[in-house]
Amino acid sequence: MNPIPWLRARRRRPALVLAALLAAAGLAAEAAYADANLVANPGLEALSANGFPLCWNAAGWGDNSYTFAVTGDAHSGASAMAITLTDRASGDRKAMMVEDPSCAPNVTPGHQYDLSVWYKTTTTSTVMTMFRHDTAAGWQYWTDLASLPVTAEFTEKTVRTPPIPPHTDQITWGVTVYDTGTLVTDDYRMVDVTQPTPGAACSAGEACTKGAWQVMPFTAPARAMHAVVLHDGNVLLVAGSGNDADAFAAGSFATALYRPYSGTFVNVPTPADLFCSGHVQLSDGRVLIMGGNKDYPSADGATGYRGLKESYVFDPATNAYTRLNDLNAGHWYPSATLLGNGDVISLGGLGEDSGGTVATEYYSAAQGRWLGLNETNQTWRFWGLYPSMILMQDGRLFYTGSHVFGDNLPGTGASIYDHAAGTVTDVPGLRRKDERDQSMSVLLPPAQDQRVLTLGGGNNVANPDAHRLTDVIDLKATAPAYTPGPPIPTGTLTGGVPQTEDQGKMYVSAVLLPDGLVFETGGGLHNRADPVYEASMFDPATNTFTAGMATDPMPRTYHSSAFLLPDGRVMAFGDNPGDGSFATHISIYSPPYLFRGARPQIRSVASTQWAYGSTQQITVDGPVLKAALIRPAAVTHSSDPNQRYVDLPMTVDGDGIGLNLTSNPNIAPPGWYMLFVVGANGVPSVAKWVHIS
Which residues form the Glyoxal oxidase N-terminal domain (predicted)? Predict the structure, then answer.
């Protein structure tokens, strides 16, 4: 059966799907999360594998004797937490939320929150305790909020927090006992009281509809222009010489490993100038890097940038590069696309002589090497710089027309490349094909629909105002052709000057989100100049933009990128204007869904190793609307052709959910993916990592 029509119907009628799932699971619709309660598992009813409530842990320190237990003596439901101290020389014991992005409530600096708990205690040495997560310093104790008097009956205690300090993105809290006695707690609640709106599920003001940005209080140690989200949750930031000829002359090449949740960096020895290389994640989670910069332009202008033939693999297990065999030609700005069999194809870029490279490079995963020119089909065609090559469901490649620098290729500007047959077929409909420098193309959610959106662009030679055009193509059609999409919303220029109706942007970033929307951000009006402050949400189901999302306070033009983090936020970095400066500030965007209430929890995943065509079992802590796999980013220069969102049709099976994975590896090429579920309140979980092989 062709699943596509059913998938589209399901996406248009989420309420019907939710009702069906709830009925199959024996739950009522009222089981959805309470409005504005930011606590995960507030009633302690969902238990983890060790028998303790999900998202809660038995914490504390010092020299004391104690027991933790789940008790049926609850305020409501079947479960409560009990702590008993039988003797104490020092320290305390706490029933605390887990310090984890999946469990700790998100907060907004400057806001205040009411924290409530139902409790019984036999000791006066009982306090509500709070910790906060500082984006630079990590988790740290914040304060004891209030002492709780002795009571033999369940009593509710509500305390208002002080204003959340700057650079704080999450908090945890709970109840502490620091002398002998017994404490029982249940039914936790946390609500934002800064801007209460009667009857609304969100009280975070504009963030409810626009989301919110935070510029991190630190800078990256490298002038990074390449980013790869690794399957351990860290981010590889590659700079090489960072577009700095002096650093190149000094042999100073940089890579930094960024740990988003602790705000720390690890410098990685970098063997060559990987500035403007190509990169892709292999099916085993290592990062394949091809080409880079062999030399900067000569002083007399006789030669331009020259492409590197070297190739490396970065291994997250060792945080080190290993050299592979060389490419057949030099490549500066090459593409990199993972195929359904785990191999990689790379095209385009500049060669060792500064001319366009026409060699097709093919990496064999089984052999762990680049094949020779005579071992793979060659078209001897120059595809341009960073040509966006998206894998289609039948194994062919779609060149979207997005590229970097210069006029587009002869023909219609987009084409389908059949590597096995060695043929190239033009695809019509792409407007202003010679003004697609630094445009971005994405395979729209879900990948099964085979629709591609191409956004914006300019021309670095003629340097007109960048345009607002978007074009959409259905690759399942008998004769695929681009059709006009809605224009990118207009924004403002430096000083708040509004754009005209004809002005758009190049250097566009487009990020696939767990809820199936596409977040569009960043960009500039001209080549390496005139940043545009505008961001929007594109809905693939309706082909419409929602304008007016919060904008990154930092300019994001040349050498900038944005991408999804495993906790559902978006990270943006880089800016390299024409004066040669380079912004190393990192910005983090929290989409509107992070202000709608508690996050759903993926309680368990039966297996992290998934086979094609299989049904995989997970358990969750409440009703969910949908589930999906998102391939982690490997992005540079408005280009990430491997970005994709794979829908996982769901079946309810007893207490769990079955997720049905496609049998087509061209829909979901092998490798590590972020597994998200989206709750009844529209909020996504934090990702669990699963591996398709």
Answer: 258-579
| Reported pTM | 0.83
- 79 contact partners, CB below 8 Å, separation of at least 6: 43, 44, 45, 47, 53, 70, 71, 72, 186
Q: What is the CA radius of gyration of the chain?
A: 26
234-267 per-position pLDDT tens digit = 999 999 999 999 999 999 999 999 999 888 999 9
Q: Helix (H, G, I), strand (E, B), or coil: what is residue 589? A: strand
Mind spelling out the 3-state secondary structure of 174-240? EEEECCCEEEEEEEEEEEECCCCCCCCCCCCCCHHHHCEEEEEEEECCCCCCEEEECCCCCEEEEEE
The secondary structure of 449-463 as a DSSP string is G-EEEEE--B-TTT-
User: How much is the pLDDT for 390?
Assistant: 98
Q: What is the DSSP letter of 162?
A: P
Contact indicator for 197, 207 with CB cutoff of 8 Å? no
Q: Where are any strands of DSSP class E within 574-649?
A: 585-590, 602-605, 609-610, 615-620, 624-630, 634-635, 645-647
Give the model confidence (pLDDT) of 664-691 as tens digits. 999 999 999 999 999 888 999 999 999 9
Cα distance between residue 470 and residue 488, in whole Å: 7
Q: Under a CB-based contact definition with an 8 Å cutoff, are residues 456 and 394 in contact?
A: no
Distance CA 105, CA 355 (A): 53
232 has which bridge partners?
none
Mapped onto helix, strand or coil, the DSSP state of residue 91 is: coil
